[in-house]
Amino acid sequence: VKTVVLAGGTGGAKLAAGLQDVLGEDVTVIANTGDDVEALGVYVSPDPDLITYWLTGQIDEERGWGIRGDVFTVFERLVRLGEPDWFRLGDLDLATCLRRRRLMDEGMRQTEAQREISSALGARGCVLAMCDEPVRTQIRTAGGWMGVQEYLVRERAGPAIEEIAFDGAEGALMTGEVADALAGAGTIVIGPSNPVISIGPILAVPGIREAIATSSAPVVAVSPFVDGKVVKGPTAECLRAVGATPDAEGVAGHYEGVIGGMVVDSGDPGPPSIGIPTVYVPTRMDSPSARRRLGERTLEFASELA
Amino acid sequence: VKTVVLAGGTGGAKLAAGLQDVLGEDVTVIANTGDDVEALGVYVSPDPDLITYWLTGQIDEERGWGIRGDVFTVFERLVRLGEPDWFRLGDLDLATCLRRRRLMDEGMRQTEAQREISSALGARGCVLAMCDEPVRTQIRTAGGWMGVQEYLVRERAGPAIEEIAFDGAEGALMTGEVADALAGAGTIVIGPSNPVISIGPILAVPGIREAIATSSAPVVAVSPFVDGKVVKGPTAECLRAVGATPDAEGVAGHYEGVIGGMVVDSGDPGPPSIGIPTVYVPTRMDSPSARRRLGERTLEFASELA
Predict the structure, then answer these.
(1) Pairing of strands B27-31, B37-39
(2) Contacts of A94 in chain B (CB under 8 A)
(3) Whole-number mean pLDDT of chain A?
(4) Residue B243 CB-density burial (10 A; 0-12 exposed, 13-18 middle, 19+ buried)
(5) Which of B151, B158, B201 is nearest to B7 (CA)?
(6) Is B198 helix (H, G, I), strand (E, B) or coil?
């Protein structure tokens, strides 16, 4: 019986690493692909790759993305050759994205390409793209609509968010791999990633929200707030943009009907009651043992809910 | 008035560099694209790039290809990810090929993409792809047909050549840029590249041979034999495969009807008469001054023929 984790960027990826440490091959990650972008001639899939780098111990933890020790030789040359310079990609990271593009050009589905990449790099857990069709998260600011990478990287998440859309999500299909993983899951965990732009696109793929909501397995979400604060990224802004409060309660409300329990940071200053079963544990994951411990606590809590 | 050089790999590229040293912007190179190959997810165009690296002083002269100081980080990672390992490409070289692919994916013609690349890298002379359609030189050995890169790189030019074909050449079109360059040429030089598989594909593009043969400009070929010997590559094998002798006379015969004169190495032990006007000068190009000197001598000889 496998544990399925929904994950976007850093928080979800760290928890996936902690769960892999506990469960080995018995963890399957469903990864957000709404941040995907074609840039520099390659197919960039930031969240599935970030998760893969976390699962394989290659992540540049200090920088928060990319591969430890990676350099930017090809990127810098591409800029000299005339490519835009706002989307930086290290050499090793670029190799991943070039490999993905080649596999997909050959006719491979994105799910298959990501599995091939993750397994070639030595991940024990399985990393699944949330779907095979392109879904592109779009952010509307006063300056108009833009892709999520443009917003996060080029605009440094500065402008206020007025609206969020998942372009292409309605036409996407739940893959056989995702359907099988959810149907066979013993536990489903929503990782502490941005609930709106990291987990939101996954739940927007037709069939996935329903499969989770109707699963007989316990479904728990881990709040992305540590000590009541956002660890990284525009989580608060995104929650506000969809009318939710930027705290654990807002996250629980955002997942209403999907989750059966919440894991909230023991330092959370939020309201004592969240309306569903809640466990308070330390959720900061700044070491392998902290990641493993949060994985264990989350699994324990889920098994109590079952 | 411009000088037009037909060139493939090393010899032609070195002469192009010598001529650029003399003429600056007034040299246009028509480069063989029959060696092009899609590999590692990028569009590799070995001869136009080799020429570009020679014209911009970036060539790894010792290795004979690629860029000086380049490393193979991305290539090695791609192999780890499952890509075939026979076609090595340095990081900076790969950036060129990725840029080319992106420009062509955007709808740019190969000619335009190469000009953009060459000018971004600082070439003073103009590098033109011989055509915009894919032409793929094929080599038949006892083991069957294979692409020229497979033959040269993977098979290390080992097996005997039984037949040579330029797939796609009949359907290719002379570009406006090539037509203009040849129509406006004051001198046309066929560089000391392999006459069969480097210059042959250029002359096989419908219209190019005729445009050269009927040009009012003097047309001279520089023999690729130095001291009667091949400097690099399977020149002798290729000439034999098309029924020509592997010497300056064989080269002159191969270009019959196209050229009006030959530049032959002063150390050439071949027959004294080649049937057309011939000048004997040192053709080894192992220094910038030797390359420039050969360029000057070739231009002088051509002007005497005019």
Answers:
(1) unpaired
(2) 74
(3) 96
(4) exposed
(5) B201
(6) coil
Contacts of B61 (CB under 8 A, 6+ apart): B68
Give the sign of the dihedral formed by CA A8, CA A13, CA A19, CA A24. Answer: positive
Amino acid identity of residue B264, one-letter, is V
Adjacent-strand bridge partners of A107: none
Partners of residue B78 in chain A, C-beta under 8 Å: 95, 98-99
Taking each helix axis from N to C end, the angle separating A110-120 and A46-55, rounded to the nearest 10 degrees, works out to 30
Model pLDDT for residues A8-36, shown as the tens digit of each residue: 988 999 999 999 999 999 999 999 999 99
Residues 6 or more apart whose CB falls under 8 angstroms from that of B196 comprise B164, B235, B238, B239, B241, B242, B244, B254
Residue A102 at interface with chain B, using a CB cutoff of 8 Å: yes
- pLDDT band at residue B272 using 50, 70 and 90 as cut-offs: low
Alpha-carbon distance A36 to A197, whole Å?
A: 12
Write the residue in A41, A71, A99 that is nearest to B78 by C-beta: A99
Strand B278-281 relative to strand A37-39, pairing: unpaired
The Cα of A120 is separated from the nearest Cα of chain B by a number of Å equal to 5
Using a CB–CB cutoff of 8 Å, tell me whether B71 touches chain A. yes
B113 contacts chain A (CB < 8 A): no
Residue A158's Cβ-side half-sphere holds a number of Cα atoms within 13 Å equal to: 6
Q: How far is CA B50 from CA B45, B57, B144, in A?
A: 9, 10, 28
Q: B131 and B178 in contact (C-beta within 8 Å)? A: yes
Q: Would you give the distance in Å from CA B74 to the centre of its chain?
A: 27
Q: Which of B40, B71, B121 sits opposite A98 (nearest CB)?
A: B40
**Separation of alpha carbons A201 and A216, rounded Å:** 23
- A:B CB pairs within 8 Å: 82
Mutate to test the interface with B, among A98, A101, A105 (most CBs of B within 10 A): A98
Q: What is the pTM of this model?
A: 0.92
Nearest to A194 by CA among A153, A154, A162, A240: A240
Angle of helix B73-80 versus helix A91-105 axis, rounded to 10 = 50
Q: Do B74 and A116 touch (CB under 8 A)?
A: no
When pLDDT is averaged across residues A87-112 and rounded to a whole number, the result is 97
Residue B26 carries which DSSP code? Answer: G
Cβ pair B125, B54 in contact under 8 A: no
Q: Which residues of B touch A71 (CB under 8 A)?
A: 73
Give the β-pairing of B219-222 and B278-281.
Answer: unpaired
pLDDT on residue A125: 97
Would you report the helix, strand and coil content of chain A in percent, each value rounded to 5? 40, 20, 40
| Integer Cα distance of A156 and B271 in angstroms | 72
